[in-house]
Design goal:
globular, alpha/beta, 206 residues
């Protein structure tokens, strides 16, 4: 998506009275992100990680914006305990359910902006998207995380989890859920993630 395509997306959202929704996925394992911290001189802090288990928490998130309304964060989590047969990530039907839930919450058409990952572009996903008349889709370039505000959500989430060693997958899921819930009630923070992309929503005369 170049500047012209993005402008087209904004014009489409205005014409449809729609929300612009940026989507992305991320995940967190039991190994915590590293971060700087304070310690006594000569005493390097150590975060003990058991290394037991292969659990993972996957998250699909939507940063939803519309001029004059509070920016929203809508997300779904998938917890993988490392058991045989468990799904390790989101599939086409999961994304469709997430978008359906967002449509119900926002009560308006959606202009979806996301990347070109295989699960977003395969035939099954295209078929699901085609059945939703309230949905218009625009795609980002092959690799352009700097244009997606959802990347800011994941970066902030990982900073808040830094140096926290969860005892198990369920505790990790609880930590991720609590951090995301806090962000939902901080629209100014979400607006900051949008501002970091350099994207500006400007009202154009009809």
């Amino acid at each position: 998506m170049d500047a012209g395509e993005l402008a087209c997306g904004k014009t489409t959202a205005r014409d449809l009275d729609a929300w612009i929704v940026f989507a992305d996925e991320s995940g967190q394992s039991l190994r915590p992100p590293k971060a700087r911290t304070w310690s006594r001189r000569g005493k390097t802090p150590v975060v003990t990680v058991s290394g037991i288990g292969s659990g993972r928490v996957s998250v699909a998130g939507l940063v939803c914006c519309k001029p004059g309304l509070r920016t929203r964060l809508i997300y779904r989590m998938l917890v993988h305990h490392g058991r045989k047969g468990e799904r390790k990530g989101f599939r086409e039907a999961d994304f469709a359910a997430l978008l359906d839930g967002a449509h119900q919450q926002l009560r308006a058409p959606i202009v979806l902006v996301w990347d070109n990952s295989t699960v977003h572009t395969d035939a099954a996903m295209r078929a699901l998207l085609a059945t939703r008349a309230w949905l218009t889709v625009f795609r980002l370039p092959t690799y352009a995380p700097d244009l997606n505000p959802a990347e800011g959500v994941w970066s902030h989430l990982k900073r808040t989890l830094a140096n926290l060693a969860a005892r198990g997958t369920d505790q990790l899921a609880a930590l991720v859920r609590s951090r995301l819930k806090r962000m939902r009630y901080r629209p100014g923070l979400l607006d900051g993630f949008i501002a970091e992309t350099g994207l500006v929503y400007t009202a154009e005369p009809p």
